[in-house]
């Protein structure tokens, strides 16, 4: 849920905390923090859930030489991205969803396109959120995994993995096991409650990233429902050098 959804969620009665020094990190700062932790002038970035290219814009404002591999399964949005970045050798647009392995799947096009997902909306959501996630069309889309794509393209280096897949992020991370061996930073949307049926929640992502050798660096853009329930946030994971160093010393 990014900039396009902000106006909608305000009208829907959700609470998005505002910036306060050393108290809260707004979601717009996620890209800056990710780049700072990556510490590279020309990072190679996986952009899962590219939508209209906002991630490219945000990273490029700080790192103009970054290279992007943008995945967007919504055919309309993918066509717009292909047209927008035609001739840009630093932006590669792939009209596919990200998951555990290559194949096809049914993709839900919702009333609010930023809520599009491979998963249906959960039952019992707050009525306004349920309205945003109401499915208006189901389409079959291609699915690939990050590992399969990197192998196919001969990519040996991915610095930042950014995922905003509306409940499917965990499964995309499962399909990135090999890529995670060299990745430096992961920026991923995490859910604290079941917004999408069958989605994995924050503890699952936290555990998987620990298995991959990453630690949670920070959370940003924390959103609450009208009943003060935690809904979602952006989580930034960095490689746990302390763990790596301890393992090397033990060996």
What are the main properties of this structure?
251 residues; alpha/beta; Rossmann fold; eight-stranded mixed β-sheet; three-stranded mixed β-sheet; 9 helices; 11 strands; disordered C terminus; transferase; SAM-dependent_MTases_sf
Describe the structure.
With 251 residues, the protein is α/β, with parallel strands linked by helices. It has one domain (24-250): 3-Layer(aba) Sandwich (Rossmann fold). It is built from nine helices and eleven strands. It has an eight-stranded mixed β-sheet. A three-stranded mixed β-sheet has the order 5-7-6. Helix 3 links the parallel strand 2 and strand 3. The chain is globular. It starts with a helix and ends with a helix.
């Amino acid at each position: 849920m990014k900039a396009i959804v902000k106006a909608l969620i305000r009208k829907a009665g959700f609470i998005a905390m505002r910036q306060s020094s050393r108290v809260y990190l707004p979601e717009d700062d996620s890209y800056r923090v990710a780049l700072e932790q990556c510490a590279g002038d020309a990072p190679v970035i996986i952009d899962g859930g590219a939508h209209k290219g906002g991630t490219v814009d945000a990273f490029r404002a700080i790192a103009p030489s970054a290279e992007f591999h943008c995945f967007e399964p919504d055919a309309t949005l993918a066509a717009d991205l292909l047209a927008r970045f035609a001739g840009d050798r630093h932006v590669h647009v792939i009209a596919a969803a990200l998951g555990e392995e290559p194949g096809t799947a049914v993709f839900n096009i919702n009333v609010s396109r930023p809520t599009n997902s491979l998963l249906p909306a959960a039952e019992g959501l707050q009525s306004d959120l349920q309205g945003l996630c109401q499915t208006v069309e189901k389409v079959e889309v291609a699915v690939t995994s990050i590992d399969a794509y990197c192998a196919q393209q001969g990519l040996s280096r991915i610095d930042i993995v950014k995922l905003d897949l509306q409940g499917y992020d965990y499964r995309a991370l499962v399909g990135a096991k090999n890529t995670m061996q060299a990745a430096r930073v992961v920026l991923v949307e995490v859910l604290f409650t079941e917004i999408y049926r069958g989605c994995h929640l924050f503890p699952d992502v936290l555990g998987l990233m620990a298995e991959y050798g990453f630690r949670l660096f920070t959370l940003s853009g924390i959103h609450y429902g009208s009943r003060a329930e935690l809904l979602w946030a952006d989580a930034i994971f960095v490689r746990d050098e302390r763990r790596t160093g301890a393992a090397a010393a033990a060996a």
